[in-house]
Amino acid sequence: EDQVTQSPEALRLQEGESSSLNCSYTVSGLRGLFWYRQDPGKGPEFLFTLYSAGEEKEKERLKATLTKKESFLHITAPKPEDSATYLCAVQALSTDKLIFGTGTRLQVFP
Amino acid sequence: DTGVSQDPRHKITKRGQNVTFRCDPISEHNRLYWYRQTLGQGPEFLTYFQNEAQLEKSRLLSDRFSAERPKGSFSTLEIQRTEQGDSAMYLCASSPLGLNTGELFFGEGSRLTVL
What we know:
Chain A is mainly β. Chain A is built from no helices and 11 strands. Chain B is mostly beta strands.
């Protein structure tokens, strides 16, 4: 069964303190791995798509990487506005649906 | 605003009542998805449409749930005989037809509370 596990569940960082979020996955043929950001009371907002091991994508202070078993979302010098829940999802070759993890709730303090 | 629109944003109902949610996707987006999200969990896939055709439906979806997209534009999700376990945020998302079918544009959701 396709599955996504994210860790840690919650992360508290001081502004400027870099860290990484982990997404471990099992899928029967990976079509793509996706990172989304979700603010409280809002729908998820797309960040990145990764298709194959070794691929990397960057956007401002965020960088996503992919291996055959996991993905990392690296946050460099975070700011309070980066506080949100970060969701990882996988899509198998045989379907168009996304399987989401439970997310990592990030809080960045000034 | 040309984003995904959902209505109502909040719905409180009594157990056993029927509820219906509406989703207006981004215009010209062929694909429309419904997900459900409970507190502390990630979104859970319910069903999706390509134009007016319902192409996939979750095995976990009770027969009390039905979704339609009659003209390939807006969609409705109806829950019959609601139960307390149906309380959740119901998220709609759309995407254009293309290679990157995992890049979804989500609405702000319809929050259902069943008393």
